[in-house]
Amino acid sequence: MNTSKIVALAITSVICLSSKAQEPNVMTINNKPISKSEFEAVYRKNNGKEVSTNAKSVNEYVDLFSLFKSKVFEAESMGLDTLTSFKTELAGYRRQLAAPYLTDKNTNENLLTEVYERMKSEVRASHILFRVDETALPKDTLEAWTRAHITRNATLGKLPTAAEIANYDKLLKNTQEVAKTLKGKDSSLYKAKFNAVKNLAEYYKNATDKFQDIAPKTSDDPSALDNKGDLNYFTAMNMVYPFENAAYNTKVGEVSPVIRTKFGYHILKVYDKRAYRGEMFAAHIMSKFAKDATEQDKANAKTKIDELYAKLKAGGNFEDLARQFSDDKQTSDRGGQLQPFKSGRLPKSFEDAAFALKANNDYSEPVLTTYGWHIIKRLDLKTLAPFAEAKNDLKTQVTRDSRSQMGRTALIERIKKENNFKETLKNRDELCKAMDTTYLKATWKADKVAKLGNKEIFNLAGKSYTQNEFAKFLETQMTFRSPTDVNELTKGMYKTWVEECIVNYEDTQLEKKYADFRNLLREYRDGILLFDLTDQKVWSKAVKDTTGLKEYYEKNKTNFMWDERADVSTYKCLNDKVAKELRKLLKEKKEEKDIVAALNKTSQLNVAVENVTYLKGENKNVDANWKQGIADKDIKDEKENKVLVLVVNKISPKSPKTLPECRGLVTADYQNYLEKEWLTYLKNKYKVTVNNEVLSTIK
After folding, report:
1. How many domains would you assign to the chain?
2. Distance between CA atoms of 383 and 119, rounded to whole angstroms?
């Protein structure tokens, strides 16, 4: 939104409507009644809690309010509230306003407190992933959960029995993907998953760390092959919410229960918990060696970092040494400055050394990582801000995080209870069974199940939601899908439909339930109308009406004057010798380009020229030589170490600016003129009649 629109909306933020039946009217505008409560809300909102009761103050608000309402009525009379662009913009604002009301506020407040408390500490954990899609069929979900459960038991020493392995084998062969690959004579996926369970006893026997050594052989997370599932240290908001919950709720040294996230099932083991270290701002000097470096290469890197460390100890400048000698070319130009980092982002030895530095500008001894040697300088350390300061930022983060769904879930449950939610699932199941595979090909039509009738599936607030409505929803969600059980798929989509219907119902009730929402939406509505109307009548008109602008300029051009000004050429000479040669050429009345060419024959650094028009007071050197011709004396420019020769080419007297020279100022004045004319028109068109008896009762 542009600035003008923001101003328009800010103006309208004083309007709060709260109509009541049979209440007195404080005024009429062209016979349209304005209630006392509407005017009083404006008056009180503008004055805050303490409201002045003097008659002058009230009467001033009568004028302000009646003028504003006149503008709104004028916009409506022009049909601006019926335009598609207006409706679209208002709908967008409404969605933004509605969002905080379509979640449970108590849940959200608790989430803010929880995330802040968790941010005070860091957890180090390893995990094993058993991947399964969120929309997977029950049989696929059961396979992944069973594999996770068996693996968890194995990490704790409870190895799978032959019966458990045989049962898992049946589940695995029944899954959609494995059954499909086996049918195609490809057993690689089956073998990989089955062996991960079958060989758990062997993995356990040969493992030193019973969790991390098993992880690479059982996890569906490919990074486990390198890191054994180790996620390093993390804090709140770094992981998806269910995973974060498990990490913070599991004691050090213990393995979590099997948990579900959008990625699948997980088990995790917590290895450590410590206080939050903060966010480190640091720089480093690096002496790098390659992964395949020889011992001599590593020795050379160590020698180099020791030499640089000695230079620092002898008083050398860290940033200068980083620019000259650091092998990290991405940071050397910035004096070694790194992007800010928290725990778990960089090699452990690097982080430990950085966070061990006690004060800004302290630097470490040489530190070894897998990338080479480093000297680390602490620039700043950002610790956790107080809750009051962090709250707004946390709100934004929580809104974007998966935990925000908890507020929506709590809202849905509350609305169900408040509005007597009832389900008839047999009617849902009847529709689901009637679905066919054309749905997977995105060719299905809702009328295919119309023959079932229109039985109620659920009821909310006395309104019936039927099979036909669910079928239409399914049609809107249709997309090409891989072969799957259509009956189970549509049952899964039923939950989404119910939740959308419940939230949409609550959305329709917001104006009735919440006066603040109703009033604020009215403010936005009137603000958009006011902006669009003013844009038509004043802002855009002043820009587009070129004829009117020219006429206004001609009538008022003496308001847009140039003061006396000097057109000056400033020759910047390398030294006194060049300045002397320049003056000689000026006296010979040589052209500027010829002078520059002649003087720069031996060096392009001898002279440069600037041509500027100055008003008095803009340049003290020009002010001291305010007459046409060559300045009598050279000027020493200490800053640039140059000798300046000024030539005042012309002194122009006071004169009107041309329209192109002052178009912005003229346009602004013309807008003010148009607005005054328009306000006069509105006051003449809209007759205001005040009920002083009612007005006097406003306290």
Report:
1. 5
2. 10
551 token code pair: 């006429």
- C-alpha to C-alpha distance for 174 and 421, rounded to whole angstroms: 37
Best CA proximity match to 337, nearest among 284, 299, 408: 284
In the prediction, which pLDDT does 54 show? 55
Does 497 share its domain with 429? yes
CATH number at residue 213: 3.10.50.40
Shared domain check, 230 and 133: yes
- Whether 100 is in a domain gets the answer no
Q: What's the number of CA atoms in the CB half-sphere (13 Å) around residue 478?
A: 20
pLDDT grade for 47, boundaries at 50, 70 and 90:
low
Identify whether residues 533 and 672 lie together within a single domain. yes
Tokens of 369: 């990582």
Supply the pLDDT for residue 640: 82
Q: Which residues form the domain of 163? A: 122-275
Q: Give 225's contacts (C-beta < 8 A, 6+ positions apart).
A: 216
573-624 per-position pLDDT tens digit: 999 999 999 999 999 999 999 999 999 999 888 999 999 999 988 999 999 9
* Position 139 in a domain: yes
Q: What is the pTM of this model?
A: 0.62
CA–CA distance, 143 with 175 (Å, rounded to integer): 7
Contact 379, 281 (CB under 8 A): yes
Annotate 69-83 with b (16+ C-beta within 10 A) or e (fewer). bbbbbbbeeeebbee
187: Cβ contacts below 8 Å, ≥ 6 apart: 181
Is residue 311 situated within a structural domain? yes
Tell me which amino acid residue 649 is.
N
For the residues of 544-571, what is the DSSP string, one character each? H-HHHHHHHHHHHGGGSEEPSEEEEEEE
For residues 272 and 566, what is the distance between their CA atoms, to the nearest angstrom?
75
